[in-house]
Amino acid sequence: DAGSSVEEMEFSWDEYLEDTGATAAPHGSFKHVDTSLQNGFAPGMKLEVAVKSDQNTYWVATIITTCGQLLLLRYDGYGEDRKADFWCDIMTADLHPIGWCEQNKKILKVPEGIKDKIPDQEEFLQRVLKGACSAPANLLEGLHRGKNPLDLIAPGSRLELQNIRDSLEAWIVNVVENVGGRLKLRYEGLEDCDKFDQWIFYLDPFLHQVGWAAQHGYSLQPPLAIRSLKSEADWQEILKKVKEEEEESSVPTDLFKDKPVIGVHSFSEGMKLEAVDPMAPFVISPATVLKVYNENFFMIEIDDLRPERTSSQSYICHVNSAGIFPVQWSLKNGLHLSPPPGYPGQDFDWADYLKQCGAEAAPQSCFPSLTSDHGFKENMKLEAVNPVDPEEVCIATVTKLKDSYLWLQLEGSKKPVPDCIVSVESMNIFPVGWCETNGYQLRPPRKAIVNKQKKIAVVQPEKQILSSRTVHDGLKNQELNSSDSVVINGKYCCPKIYFNHRCFSGPYLNKGRIAELPQSVGPGNCVLVLKEVLTLLINAAYKPSRVLRELQLDEEAAWHGHGETLKAKYKGKSYRATVEVVRTADRVADFCRKTCIKLECCPNLFGPQMVLDKCSENCSVLTKTKYTHYYGKRKNKRIGRPPGGHSNLEVAMKKPNKRRKRRKHFFVHKKKRSSASVDNTPAGSPQGSGGEEEDDQDEVDEESLTEDSTSEHQDELLEESEVSEKKSLSSSPTQSELSHSLAQDRDKRKRKLRTFSFSDDENKPPSPKDIKMEVAEKLQLDSNPLEWSVADVVRFLKSTDCAPLARIFLDQEIDGQALLLLTLPTVQECMDLKLGPAIKLCHHIERVKLAFYQQFAN
């Protein structure tokens, strides 16, 4: 299941907006959502309310405002005086529509507080009730009392839906699910088949209450797509059954009073225009008015010049339909118009095309004026339906704005899709938090934020890669409607980008994590695919922030492409930077190669070519020291120690002057890294040092990145350990570090031993048998492990075959005392290590314990 890897993560819009530095689109911009939240009562409506001082009498009151099922009322006669306003609950208050008292022989009597203002009650009532709007009776009485009108569209309710693909005929649909007014509908007669289900907002102009077709002269016929599934007699039997049950499953007519009114159009058959197919709203294409039904509806078809085409993309529109534009609208707005499939050449020209077709352009007067007063801005966030899979509601970012149209980039969809073009009045877009409010699953971003109560403070890279792999396995099988063929084959379509994990990964990228990436990403929109590729590479780095800095856009753009904001997280800190990616397919290969060289890895590590057996660069012979010989020196001077040298020794010696972190009392509670942090690079592969030896430079250079949060500063310990590594013995901290005499050292050890205790049986001295077995591996220590600092522990580990685990010990600040307390269960639980690496690590810990007992415990 594509969503299984992210379902455990709890997505928070507040944290996400803070994390991305984005803002939410204003709630007032979603008019259809505002309408759906109305409870059926509106300010200015009048009703008859029991008088508090005399429960047997009633008086007319006006609704001042509403809040859910609460109404703020004012008795008529108080005018603008607010002192007597009162709240009442629709469910419990004695409220009735105008005329109820007369019908039920109840008394209308002026309340005591305004008797003096109303000398003639009858004349006053005639005046205030003339032309007044009464509160709906069905919302004040009976089963519907106090219910939100939207809740009356319950599962099992029936409606009529016009088929916009092939005709204006309507057919009965059953409501399967109602999510905040967004209805999952199933055609009547297909109770056990969900293949043709549709998601439509209840205010859609093609959705009506049962009986609408008959009233407006339309026939009830199942759509062509399902008509062959049953015989004509079966369909007529289904229709007969529906009419018999009409009363039980009908929906109140009042619900549709707020639907947009369809105006009169002035289109004629054969007119040309520009259009976006609502079923695949990714490109703007030339289109033709195929048929005019009446003054309200007409059918358009997306142009396709291929002689062998087997199907057409046509749909029914009205004058206010979204996604129809006059000829040249794209050109005037600097947008790409996709030539019709089969059009000769790539440079489309409307004048030549109209001449070639012998057609006329639909005049500007046929189209409604477009508004730019809508509240949306670029980079705003919202929630939007995935047009390829309407079950999905995704996080969306406004990437572009033109008049009253938005270009939305969807995050977290199972199959990545190009930017979608939607109207600002689309009923498939929703404000931030809409899904949560209505109990629907929002597709979280692939790098979701984990609930802060969890043990680990950042998402495990292993999980991130898993979800990305799932997404991109789906991309291989992506099937968009044929209207998207221009995107898939055009110059803006990126070919598949392969991760060739056998190639040399360089000093920054973790070879083990590279191997866990999906085999390929794409094809698809160049910007989207390359952004995803770079995001995966950043997450596969030893230090994601360092790779982000390497990729960061310089002041002068090298590619004159598209700037994308990418993020990296490292040691509790979040970084953002603008990275340039190319927009056209012809530059992708060169972009990938030069990016690889920038990251000091094999130029074929990722790119449009799959490396099968042997890399053309013969990168298997490369090591970090050999890299620059083949691909040139880097332009950024490295402060970290060059391979084989000790030039940063002085820098390392100055490090203790820095502010030191306060030591945590016990490492177990500080789980910041998972097993995914462990470098699983095979022996002989570059590992570890690439991302670690340059921390000094990183601390300076990463200031150029945008920093999102505070973090911890620990890298000096690792650097210190690396500088001293070559001069130390292979198994322990060096003798030269001992500054006390042997006698003083023994006294000190005795004092410390009095306060030192072991936590379980595994820490007791090994039996003579065990000692005998390990004689060949006997360890000789030059200093007491009880006095080892974190740097000493790291230095010791780096001298063993568990060197990749040194980073975990540094992150969790494990010093000598904590090291001696470690056991197999605590290593597995607190470091999230698998059994194999945990046993190997514990073997070395036991060697240290044994040496401690033999050398220092007496």
Automatic annotation (TrEMBL):
Region entry Disordered, spans: 633-769
Annotated Low complexity bias: 729-742
Bias (Acidic residues): 691-706
Keyword Ribonucleoprotein: no
Record flagged with keyword Membrane: no
PROSITE patterns: MBT
Bias-annotated ranges (Basic residues): 655-674
Domain SAM as annotated: residue spans: 785-851
The organism's place on the tree of life at top rank: Eukaryota
GO CC terms in record: nucleus
Matches recorded under PANTHER family: POLYCOMB GROUP PROTEIN, SCM-LIKE WITH FOUR MBT DOMAINS PROTEIN 1
Protein name: Scm-like with four MBT domains protein 1
Organism expressing this protein natively: Antrostomus carolinensis (Chuck-will's-widow)
